[in-house]
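FIELD: query
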Amino acid sequence: KVVQSSAEDLVREKLDTRVVVRSGTEKDEQYIELWTPDNLKQIFNLKEIDVHGKIYCDDTFGGLDLSDDLKKVVYVAEKKLPKSFSYMYQGKLPENSTQGNQFTYRQEWGEQLVG
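FIELD: result
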């Protein structure tokens, strides 16, 4: 059963386990919470993990599910883009970064779905 509690939260219940995606107080801060009927089992700060962008919680692209063995969570999130630096950058480039692409046009889904 999927429950949309607010524009920022997405909830999925399966058997006795509940998964909640919540937005934090800072920009781009999201948490995944795993609940059992009695208590909070585990919480993940997605900004600290830094593997991808924000999880989609809207009706169009949002999705959240648990595996049958309740060990994996599946969701839809934004792709993490590599950090881009100017051609004039003098320091050492971090791993997984590009140079000279900071102003490259990236197509979005329109004004209503701007990420």
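FIELD: remark
The chain is about 5% helix and 35% strand.
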